[in-house]
Amino acid sequence: MSTIAGAGFNFWSFIMTLLRCILIQILLTYSSQKEMRACEEPPDIDFGDIVSGEKSEYVESDRVQYCCYPGYTLIRSEWITCNGSWTPPPKCLAPCTITKQQLEDKNMFLRSGRRHTVVIQSAQIIEFSCSKGYKLTTPSVGACVDGHIHFPLCISETGKKCGRPPTIANGDITTFALKEYASGFSVEYKCQRFYTLTGQNTSFCNNGNWTKPPVCL
């Protein structure tokens, strides 16, 4: 009888110990889940939306995915992750529109020989040519950068002459100045010692007017 009682006592002792362990494990799991770092709503981005991973609450390791509107170019990772705060979101870069009127005003056309409105995506490069009677003074290509494009410069070869080139503070042209220059002619600038040249180091005579000279800082 004592043996059976002893066996029964050991069995229930084992069961109680097991239940105690299970309860402790449940409490530890619940506690660890509560300690997971939460994030606020993921940030909105201009010209784009979240397309995957949206939910009512976000905790550590949750991810969401972004997509840009048609025509816009996504930079950085399309996914962001919750680490107590969100990793940096991507950005949607705007395309560039080159109009027929811009090409006419700048005396140029597309390398294809056409002069019409086109749309190119950010980071895309396009090549230009000058109209007859004009020449390129800068590289013939332009790159779209988030909705902005830097056009090359077409200078008139037969326009009005220019007077002396513009003077700049803390710098000068590298040659002796003439009284007048033919359209299309250029002068080069350099800065005095300890000054740094900012902008293009060359100014062009364009139909009676000089293009913007550099600055010495």
From TrEMBL:
Pfam families: Sushi. Its main location: virion. Keywords: Disulfide bond, Membrane, Signal, Sushi, Transmembrane, Transmembrane helix. PROSITE patterns: SUSHI (PS50923). It is found in: Virion. InterPro entries: ComplSys_Reg/VirEntry_Med, Sushi/SCR/CCP_sf, Sushi_SCR_CCP_dom. Residues 37-94, 160-217 form the Sushi domain. The chain crosses the membrane at residues 12-30. Disulfide bonds join 39-82, 162-205. This is Complement factor H-related protein 3-like. The gene is LOC106723179.
